[in-house]
Amino acid sequence: MAPMQAPESRFAFVVVVSRRARQLQTGSRALIDTSKLRKPTRIAREELVKGLLDYELPVLPLSPDEKEGKRRKG
């Protein structure tokens, strides 16, 4: 299986890394050599950048306004 690429969205990247860091904190084994890295967030980030994590991002349904192409008022 080909390695997965990191998500393009910064928000999605942070969500995936934080969830993986939580797994590492609760006892999951790291997928990389951790001799130079100690923090779970750094380990999770490296795993994601190297394409070692499988993840699924949910597809959220569009709101009626988004379907019609209306912009939000700021």
Description:
- With 74 residues, the protein is mainly alpha-helical.
- Helix 1 (10-25) crosses helix 2.
- It starts with 9 loop residues before the first helix and ends in a 6-residue tail after the last helix.
- It has a single domain, classed as Eukaryotic RPB6 RNA polymerase subunit (Alpha-Beta Complex).
- It has helices at 10-25, 40-49, 64-68.
Give the secondary structure arrangement, pairings included.
Layout: H1 10-25, H2 40-49, H3 64-68
The fraction of residues in strands falls at under 5%
Shape call: elongated
Radius of gyration: 16 Å
Largest sheet: none
Q: What is the percent of helical residues?
A: 40-55%
**Which CATH architecture?**
Alpha-Beta Complex
Q: Which residues form runs of ≥5 with pLDDT under 50?
A: none
- Helix-strand category: mainly alpha
The quaternary organization reads as: single chain
In the CATH scheme, what's the topology name?
A: Eukaryotic RPB6 RNA polymerase subunit
In short, what is this structure?
The protein has helices at 10-25, 40-49, 64-68.
Main attributes of the structure:
74 residues; mainly alpha; Eukaryotic RPB6 RNA polymerase subunit; 3 helices; 42% helix; elongated
